Amino acid sequence: xxxxxxxxxxxxxDYILNPAGFTWxxxxxxxxxxxxxLSVTDRTRKAAVARMLSLAETDRVDAxxxxxxxxxxxxxxxxx
Length: 80
Hints:
Radius of gyration: 12 Å
Oligomer: single chain
């Protein structure tokens, strides 16, 4: 059984899924610790996760989901 992985700061280039009201945002982590907004149009979590995983796989980086108070849960690892 695989355990969930949690971190407080994703690596630069990683993608983060962030819920925001009625839409889901996909953001990219930057080297300065800030986030770059990439997509804000996904209305369902399923569509947002699919888009995020596609981006992460193409760039060979990890995909994370923002959870409570600044923590992130690993959705899928693509880094070598």
